[in-house]
# Entry
Amino acid sequence: MKKIKAIIFDVGGVLLIGKYSSFILKREYLGIHQYLAKTLGLDIDLWFDTIDKTYSDSIEGRIDERKAVKIISNNLNINQKKLENLVIKTYKSFFKKNKQLYSLAYVLKKKGYIVGILSDQWPLSKKALISKEDFKLFNPVIISCDVGFRKPDSKIYKLLFKRLKEKDKKIKMSEILFVDNRMWNLKPARKLGMKVILFEDNKKLFEKIKEFGINL
# Structure
């Protein structure tokens, strides 16, 4: 087995996990959207109808934060700053830092591994969930709303490889380990030659990492 040189982590559901035991992370953070709809006195279907295209476009960077907030606030007839603060506060209230994985990242970095982030976020969730500390610890940090495409589009994995090449010209796809909590995000990474781990919990992740020859 070739040596792993880079370990790349997803954010929601991996580096950040749900604060509440009853909170199950589903596609598009359904629990968060339900809470936002309820807080604003909206039916969940109406909430999704209101944000749908704007939310999707902003995740893929087709529109910026300012435009996304303006469109949604106008649709809901709510103050832009109020909406922004509510969304950011809600994301923060639903997630907590997975301290064990942050500790793991520090250890891996000290051992000479490249540790990075590859995550799908829209501008407001990025503001809430990606901290200044993340940009100090992880490099590269690739967020969908910043780069113009999202997982599982192969372009975002190829961009990751390009960024890693800037740090290590000799790195190969097979020397990259990608950790995500969604199988459909791992399939294109594996197809390109990366090693992958489906994140279920910390204990299983630590066990699987050792199978790739990474000694902690």
Confidence is low (pLDDT under 50) at residues 22-28.
